[in-house]
From TrEMBL:
Superkingdom to which the source organism belongs: Archaea
Origin species: Thermoproteus sp. AZ2
Highest classification ranks of the organism: Archaea, Thermoproteota, Thermoprotei, Thermoproteales, Thermoproteaceae
Record's protein name: Replication factor C large subunit
Length: 420
């Protein structure tokens, strides 16, 4: 499998983002008036002169899914040579965590860029319970930070986002119309050297309802590796279930008989790799009772895990195909594959249940680790693997040390003790 086309063809510059001119002009005007940006870029794009643009402390991009919000921010950063410090919906976004990530991002100098901007992606996904204080601390940051802060949201009109709207310039990102979607699909067909019938693209565009991400995923599903795409190919689209449950996904993978059949699952829109990984690990030994088969499938998952981690830390998306193939085909295809019963009861991953349960204590442990790392100028992982042990020895001899740490991170001595 190749790279997901939504990544491969994600526009890197403003000019490649279709039909969001107004958003581009406003965003550029805001950046150019308030921050450092190259002259050529500002000449080309900063075309709006308005008080509301110049006065705004932050920007909130609002619009439907798959219309280019996240893309706009990354393209902007690329245009003005800024690094993006990002917190998105898959991160925990408590006030503590936000301050930590943003603080770290801003403290560390940028070797290769001329500045940094902060992106809070999908702020309407902030969970009032789990991301405790997250919204308030974003507002605080907007008031105090000296770097550009940009947020995105599908629907920021809820009452609880009012404080955020009040400190930001809200820029509307439009729903794309059929023509825009067709245009992007056509470009991809050309780049992939696929002869795509105009009507086929139109049908894809129609069913995507302005969500370009969905349209591109569909196109890849139907056209990848082919010389041509016809209307007939696309007719199958109605049969596709856009949102499979994790249960169905797992069932398809385990029942797949061929490589392609298993890897096709990766085209499901908004497929959640990390969730899938947890489910796969939990269920491989249940499905494959034969130890050698289970061992083989788990071994492939472990390799996929290594790649996944590497993608996450380095952003090397070109590794994605290896990961998806290992994770999907890697567990679907084992020698002497047993026949699954007609209905197999997959198990909800214990790891997710456990993580949810132990979240509070992990949070406390993180607070202690971060505090020590900061004070001692060492890495958090060094504190975790080495110093916590030393600390437990020290604590036995000198309980006062614990009190000091407890005070610094606002945790009771008893709790600190419990973490050692
Ligand atoms: N206006 C556009 N021009 C060109 N490509 C686009 C445009 N909008 C979206 N895309 C394509 O669709 C993909 C998804 O876009 P993006 O991630 O920016 O959507 P989004 O608006 O942030 O959606 P969500 O609300 O779901 O986060 C991109 O990788 C890009 O390939
Ligand atoms: Mg987005």
């Amino acid at each position: 499998m190749s790279l997901p086309w939504v990544e491969k063809y994600r526009p890197r510059s403003f000019k490649d983002i279709v039909n969001q001119e107004e958003a581009k002009y406003k965003l550029a005007s805001w950046i150019c008036r308030r921050f450092r940006a190259p002259d050529a870029f500002c000449k080309a794009w900063a075309k709006v002169q308005a008080k509301e643009v110049e006065g705004a402390k932050a920007v909130l991009l609002a619009g439907p899914p798959g219309t280019g919000k996240t893309t706009l921010v990354h393209a902007l950063a690329h245009e003005i040579d800024y690094e993006v410090v990002e917190l998105n919906a898959s991160d925990v976004r408590t006030s503590e965590r936000i301050r930590e990530v943003v603080g770290r991002g801003l403290r560390e100098g940028s070797l290769f860029y001329s500045g940094k901007l902060i992106l809070f992606d999908e702020v309407d996904g902030l969970n009032p319970k789990e991301d405790l204080g997250g919204l308030d601390s974003i507002v605080d940051l907007v008031e105090t930070a000296r770097v550009p802060i940009i947020m995105t949201a599908n629907n920021p009109w809820d009452q609880r986002f009012r404080p955020l709207r009040e400190v930001s310039l809200v820029i509307n990102v439009r729903k794309l119309d059929e023509e825009d979607v067709v245009e992007v699909l056509r470009r991809i067909c050309n780049a992939e050297k696929i002869r795509c019938e105009e009507d086929a693209l139109r049908a894809l565009a129609k069913s995507s309802n302005g969500d370009l991400r969905a349209a591109i995923n569909d196109l890849q599903l139907f056209a990848e590796g082919k010389g041509a795409l016809t209307v007939d190919d696309v007719k199958r689209i109605g049969e596709r279930n856009p949102q499979l449950s994790m249960f169905e996904v797992l069932d398809r993978v385990f029942r797949a008989r061929w490589f392609d059949e298993a890897r096709a699952i990766s085209f499901t829109p908004s497929f959640d790799w990390e969730q899938f990984f947890a489910w796969a690990v939990e269920n491989v030994p249940r499905v494959y009772k034969e130890p050698s088969a289970a061992a083989m499938a788990l071994d492939r998952l472990s390799k996929a895990d290594i790649i996944l981690r590497r993608i996450r830390t380095t952003g090397e998306w070109e590794l994605m195909p290896y990961m998806t193939e290992l994770m999907l085909a890697g567990i679907a295809l084992v020698p002497d594959k047993p026949k699954l019963p007609r209905f197999f009861k997959y198990q909800f991953p214990q790891r997710i249940t456990l993580l949810a349960k132990s979240r509070e204590s992990r949070r406390r442990r993180e607070a202690v680790v971060d505090y020590l790392a900061r004070e001692l100028h060492v890495s958090p992982s060094y504190v975790s693997s080495e110093l916590m042990r030393v600390l437990s020895v020290v604590a036995k001899k000198n309980p006062k040390a614990l009190e000091a740490i407890g005070r610094a991170v606002s945790i009771s001595v008893k709790d600190v003790e419990g973490l050692l």
